[in-house]
Specification:
- It is a single chain.
- This protein has one helix and eleven strands; from the N terminus they run H-E-E-E-E-E-E-E-E-E-E-E.
- The chain is mostly beta strands.
- The protein has one domain: Sandwich (Immunoglobulin-like), CATH 2.60.40.
- The strands form four sheets. It has a four-stranded mixed beta sheet, with no helix packed on it.
- The longest helix is centred in the first third of the chain and has 17 residues.
């Protein structure tokens, strides 16, 4: 129980250091994914022993997003990621080895803050991304 409480407190502190309030209840996430020359927002998301890197990012609504998932270390549940690129039908991304990479391409249609996570939702492997108006 004490370990879970400590992990929970650490996660809350990390969230407060990553997300900086910006007027009227909106939040600015620390990693903004840039739009490349090809018109796509591209990001590599690594699965590490300590969680996802980056664990929090933002993308612009209506502009295609390409996320390359890669594994840094062999883990149990952290190498499976439920990612809500399409909110009606989230994608299950499975990484089978440190050399494996999986790509998810989607165009965010609705602004908001969304979670991606391992199937068991352990604290280390929960991340967020925000979709902002372009």
């Amino acid at each position: 129980m004490t370990r879970r409480l400590l992990i929970g407190l650490v996660m809350v502190m990390l969230i407060f250091t990553i997300v900086v309030p910006v007027g009227c209840g909106q939040a600015k996430v620390s990693t903004a994914v840039p739009v490349g020359a090809d018109g796509v927002q591209s990001l590599t998301l690594a699965v590490t022993r300590d969680g996802y890197s980056p664990s929090s990012f933002s993308v612009k609504q209506g502009i295609p997003v390409k996320i390359i998932f890669r594994e840094v270390t062999a883990l149990t549940c952290g190498n499976e990621i439920i990612f809500p690129g399409d909110l009606a039908k989230p994608v299950l991304v499975k990484l089978t080895s440190p050399d494996d990479q999986q790509v998810v391409i989607f165009t965010p249609k609705k602004s908001g803050v969304y979670q991606f996570y391992c199937p068991c939702k352990c604290l280390e492997h929960v991340g967020t991304f925000s979709v902002t108006s372009s």
